[in-house]
Amino acid sequence: MKLNLIIAALALPVAMCAQDSVAVSAEGYPNTYSSGSANVSPFTQDSKRFNDWAISAGAGVPLLQSGDLTSIKNGNGKNIFGYSAYLSVDKAITHAFGINLQYDRGETRQGWFNTKTDNATGTDFQDVGARTQYDALSLIGDVNFSNLLRRVDNKSPYRWALHGYAGVGTMAYRAYLEDAKGQRLQTEIKPFSLSSMFGQAGAGLKYKVNRRIDVEGRVMYVVTGDDQFDGGGAQYSPINMREDQISDNFLNATLGLSLKLGKHQSHLMWHDPLQEIYYKLDVLADKNQDVEVCKKGDADNDGVCDDWDRQLDTPAGARVDGAGVALDTDLDGVIDLYDKCVTVPGPVENNGCPTSTTVTDNTRTLEGIEFDLNSDRILPSNTPILNNAVNYINSSTGTYNVIGATDTRASDAYNQNLSERRANNVKNYLMQNGVTTGKLDALGRGEKDLKYPECEPATKCPEWKNRANRRVYFEAK
């Protein structure tokens, strides 16, 4: 059996479903990367090869960052620390996305002093401290960026992962205020009401200790949507009239552990498709086993089975994505295999490279002085062409119009102004570099002089055509 067919059969179920779609032989494989065998069967929940549940818990420090009373650099220039803890049940949907049901409990401390250790020292209404006890229940989306962006040719050990989180939920809290009159309850909010809704978002860095335990440091930003969370009291109290914000928000930095549940060796969020492939190939080579692969074969031999190949005639040697489509990095319509300028868009007739043009006696024009979107800055790549233009213009007897143009994005008025600025910048550059005064005039034609008229609107064309429309060229008078 061909090696690339074996790779396709083993890799694509992972890429498409983030789970294996094959059952193992009676002998089984001994470690994390052990999800393939010679016995092919439909994917079922019972035959999945990865754990996808976990329980997480952690503790940390909440700091009220946005409010009338804050924990960070309070009225005395100090930071006041509270405490927080969380417990969550985590479900991995794919190798890069999951959902967490999380319960948070904590207490923020804010104001001029720590109400747990200090007391008010004066009668000034500014000499106040507060604390807020909260309980929150939220549903949080979990994106594993390390798995989402992991290169398929990366064979490095996979023990660190960057996660992003965002979610909404309901929060109950009690806010206490302390001043010279003593400590008292200012605000109490019950859960599961419209006024108790809140949101949070943040990031975490996980380290895989072993197949069961992960350690994670996480920072979340909590938006309460409530101006009374800080203990300032009613909307028109002297404290809550200090600032205009309507939401008291806090940062919550935590350190926690995740316990991965299930009978399998690997958890879905730590799944590395390439490592699995290499392991399987080694095992199959050692055991001299054969593998049933694509039912319909792989006609273009690109490693993607015809069953799900969206481009069945990929040229030999072309790199493809998971759907079997040849890669075109710069999206100019020329696949990377044939593109001589892989990262810079250009026309098909020039092998995917930008058009290189010069001044000639036949056309008396200069094209190819292109600009970035919404910019009149002369790019370093254009200066050699402009320097050649200096020599040509000075050696000729004619005079020229320097004409600026744009693509079809933005309004007519904006594009007209932008084209004039481009033309004047090129004219000034040429005169500063030696073109005789009186040989050049600058004109702007906005989007009325497209090199590729079919690019109206701009979305109808690849970027290299729109870039070619954003240009300055010369016309002999």
Largest sheet data: 8 strands, antiparallel, barrel
pLDDT under 50 segments (min length 5)? 1-43, 274-289, 356-365
Q: How would you write the strand order of the largest sheet?
A: 1-2-3-4-5-7-8-9
> The CATH topology of the largest domain, please?
Porin
- What is the architecture of the largest domain at the second tier of CATH? Beta Barrel
**Tally of individual domains:** 3
Instruction: State the end-to-end CA separation.
Output: 69 Å
Helix run count? 6
Structural class: alpha+beta
Number of E strands: 13
Helix/strand order: HEEEEHEEEEEHEHEHEHE
**Overall pLDDT:** 79
- What fraction, in percent, of the residue positions are helical? 10-25%
Oligomer: single chain
Query: What is the name of the CATH class of the largest domain?
Result: Mainly Beta
Strand content: 25-35%
- Which term fits the overall shape? flat
Which terms summarize this structure?
single chain, about 475 residues, alpha+beta, Porin, 60s Ribosomal Protein L30, Chain: A, eight-stranded antiparallel β-barrel, four-stranded mixed beta sheet, 6 helices, disordered N terminus
